[in-house]
Amino acid sequence: MLLIKCPYCGVRDQTEFRCGGEASRARPDHPEHISDPDWAQYLFYRENPKGLLRERWVHRYGCGQWFIVSRDTVTHDILDSLPMGDLPPKGRDAP
Ligand SMILES: [Zn+2]
């Protein structure tokens, strides 16, 4: 079980949160102009890296805010939790 730090509420049990996937994924600006394979790539394919990954999480049963978690996918160690739009500490770049 993970303990996740909401940047607004503090450390809580993972059951209060929902993961929204990789933070680096950006919705295409004009999805009506991209091909079906490219749209499928955006919808269904993930990098699933081994190691550091930045993910979107929402505090579903708390404040309802979305934020970014930097998590090691091997150890599940959480390195930081930041409000949306904040940058991770230098040297902590992840996909
Ligand atoms: Zn919260």
Give the secondary structure arrangement, pairings included.
Elements: E1 3-6, E2 10-13, E3 18-22, H1 36-44, E4 52-58, E5 66-72, E6 78-83
Antiparallel strand pairs: 1-2, 3-4, 4-5, 5-6
Explain this structure to me?
This protein has 95 residues and is mostly beta strands. The chain has a domain at 1-25 and 48-88: Folate-binding superfamily (Folate-binding fold, 2-Layer Sandwich). It is 9% helix and 35% strand. A hairpin with a 3-residue loop joins strand 1 and strand 2. The chain starts with a strand and ends in a 12-residue tail after the last strand. The model has no long low-confidence stretch (mean pLDDT 90). It binds zinc ion. The site of zinc ion has 7 residues, from loops.
Briefly characterize the structure.
The protein has 95 residues and is mostly beta strands. The protein is 9% helix and 35% strand. It has one helix at residues 36-44; strands at 3-6, 10-13, 18-22, 52-58, 66-72, 78-83.
| Helix-strand sequence | EEEHEEE
Helix content: under 10%
Write down the Rg.
Answer: 15 Å
Q: Give me the secondary-structure category.
A: mainly beta
Provide the low-confidence segments as ranges: none
Keywords:
single chain, 95 residues, mainly beta, Folate-binding fold, 4-stranded antiparallel β-sheet, two-stranded antiparallel ribbon, 1 helix, 6 strands, 35% strand, globular, binds zinc ion
